């Protein structure tokens, strides 16, 4: 953590702009960024912390995993001609200061309004929707298919990027607010829209994107090819995979960086990230690539994996081809085929929602396979809302939070309109 002197210098860089583009345009949660930084300038750290968590209980999480350089910092006025204010570092400092000083800020609930809402999925979107509804006086029950709540925060992001204690702290706070959590309950199997409507007045779906995007490397089924979510979950549950040998990760996003670093921590002999585009066109944050390389991961850009070669029924290597970027697209170069040794492969080229599960519930999907919602987050089914990775691809944690908040406001607005009609 930076010293007080260093933090004060970073805070002074903020101009406290009247238009606040960092907050109003750059931050999906519209955190009061200049306000909390002003409190840092005057040494009022606890007040700064209250400003952050009152708007976003996930503030500490966002400071650690969100791409500030693409969101709030990208919209900083300073960024036009100079370097932007280091908003992420300031936010992280305040949250860690509050943790060290045992500052426990409680969010007040409104009086119960008699309405009950079911939240399906305990990832960022689901929990944020629950928080906003609890604030407004709703009774909230969260259903989670896994043993531990937290979704991607618990099972998808490694502890060296996001300590599990931070996630546990958020879960504890929503319990204190009155949320009921029910784990090991799967949507489409243990609960359905129909069954939940018998008990609840509204439903929010935040099940994320859980179906890995893969392509075939060989005609044979191999137990050495892993989807990124399965690979990361094994690490996060301390179920380390053994004898990984030479690992190749296919992809160029933050998940690919996480999977590569996790492979090394699980004992891989070597790890390569093969990505069909160059560094300039990769979606991963620069800091994530830098840290992966520092850990010992080899990054091989402009490379497309075509197929796998087997020896005695086991993976031995990958057939690859070099590419070039033409009008933003990766195009294969003729006569550039080469082989990369590989014992295990991890696909990190994206996840998508489970189409069959959603469609069986009567939920309409758009052309990209995402749940179709209106401006309030409602699906085609009356009273059923959705948000997060299930409604948009490549969503950040902060964008998922914003979707959860938008849906909570949509649910509240729906009941307000119904009440007006009845009166």
Number of domains: 3
Strand content: 15-25%
Q: What is the 3D shape?
A: globular
Strand order of the largest sheet: 3-2-1-4-15
Count helical runs: 15
CATH-assigned homologous superfamily of the largest domain: FAD/NAD(P)-binding domain
| Main sheet specs | 5 strands, parallel
Radius of gyration: 23 Å
The residue fraction in helices comes out at 25-40%
Count of strand segments? 15
The CATH level-2 architecture of the largest domain is identified as 3-Layer(bba) Sandwich
Q: Using the coordinates shown, work out and report the CATH topology of the largest domain.
A: FAD/NAD(P)-binding domain
Order of helices and strands: HHHHHHEHEHHEHEEEHEHEHEEEEEEHEH
How far the N terminus sits from the C terminus, by CA atoms, comes to 56 Å
List unreliable stretches of 5+ residues: none
Give structural notes.
This protein is an alpha/beta fold and 423 residues long. It folds into 3 domains: 4-100, Fumarate Reductase Iron-sulfur Protein, Chain B, domain 2 (Orthogonal Bundle); 116-209 and 353-422, FAD/NAD(P)-binding domain (3-Layer(bba) Sandwich); 212-347, FAD/NAD(P)-binding domain. It is built from 15 helices and 15 strands. The protein has helices spanning 4-12, 21-26, 33-41, 45-55, 59-65, 87-100, 124-135, 152-155, 164-176, 193-197, 228-236, 254-265, 286-295, 355-360, 397-422, and strands at residues 116-120, 139-143, 180-182, 202-205, 211-212, 225-227, 246-250, 270-274, 298-300, 303-311, 314-326, 329-341, 344-347, 351-352, 384-386. The strands form 4 sheets. It has a 5-stranded parallel β-sheet. It has a 5-stranded parallel β-sheet with strand order 6-13-7-8-9. It has a 3-stranded antiparallel β-sheet with strand order 10-11-12, with no helix packed on it. α12 links the parallel β7 (246-250) and β8 (270-274). The longest helix is centred in the C-terminal third of the chain and has 26 residues, at 397-422. The protein is globular and about 70 Å long.
């Amino acid at each position: 953590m930076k010293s007080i002197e260093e933090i004060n210098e970073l805070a002074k860089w903020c101009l406290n702009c009247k238009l606040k583009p960092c907050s109003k345009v750059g931050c999906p949660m519209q955190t009061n960024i200049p306000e909390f930084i002003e409190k840092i300038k005057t040494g009022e750290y606890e007040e700064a912390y209250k400003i952050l968590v009152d708007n976003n209980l996930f503030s500490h999480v966002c400071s650690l995993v969100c791409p500030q350089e693409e969101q709030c910092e990208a919209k900083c006025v300073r960024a036009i001609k100079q370097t932007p204010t280091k908003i992420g570092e300031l936010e992280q400092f305040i949250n860690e200061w509050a943790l060290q000083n045992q500052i426990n800020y409680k969010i007040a609930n409104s009086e119960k309004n008699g309405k009950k809402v079911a939240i399906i999925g305990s990832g960022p979107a689901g929990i944020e929707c629950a928080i906003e509804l609890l604030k407004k006086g709703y009774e909230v029950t969260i259903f989670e298919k896994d043993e531990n709540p937290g979704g991607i925060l618990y099972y998808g992001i490694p502890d060296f990027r996001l300590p599990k204690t931070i996630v546990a702290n958020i879960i504890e706070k929503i319990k204190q607010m009155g949320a009921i959590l029910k784990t090991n309950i799967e949507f489409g199997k243990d609960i359905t829209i129909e069954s939940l409507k018998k008990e609840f007045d509204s439903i929010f779906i935040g099940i994320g994107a859980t179906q890995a995007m893969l392509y075939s490397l060989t005609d044979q089924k191999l137990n050495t090819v892993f989807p990124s979510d399965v690979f990361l979950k094994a690490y996060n549950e301390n179920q380390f995979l053994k004898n990984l040998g030479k690992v190749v990760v296919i992809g160029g996003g933050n998940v690919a960086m996480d999977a590569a670093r996790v492979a090394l921590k699980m004992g891989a002999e070597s790890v390569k990230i093969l990505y069909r585009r160059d560094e300039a066109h990769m979606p991963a944050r620069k800091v994530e690539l830098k840290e992966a390389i520092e850990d010992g991961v080899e990054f091989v850009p402009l490379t497309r994996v075509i197929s796998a070669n087997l020896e005695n029924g086991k993976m031995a290597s990958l057939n690859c081809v070099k590419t070039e970027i033409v009008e933003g697209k990766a195009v294969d170069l003729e006569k550039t085929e080469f082989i990369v040794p590989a014992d295990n492969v991890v696909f990190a080229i994206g996840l998508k929602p489970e189409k069959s599960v959603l469609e069986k519930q009567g939920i309409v999907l758009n052309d990209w396979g995402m749940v179709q919602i209106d401006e309030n987050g409602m699906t085609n089914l009356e009273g059923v809302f959705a948000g997060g990775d299930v409604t948009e691809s490549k969503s950040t944690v902060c964008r998922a939070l914003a979707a959860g908040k938008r849906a909570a406001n949509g649910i509240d607005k729906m009941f307000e309109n119904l009440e007006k009609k009845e009166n």
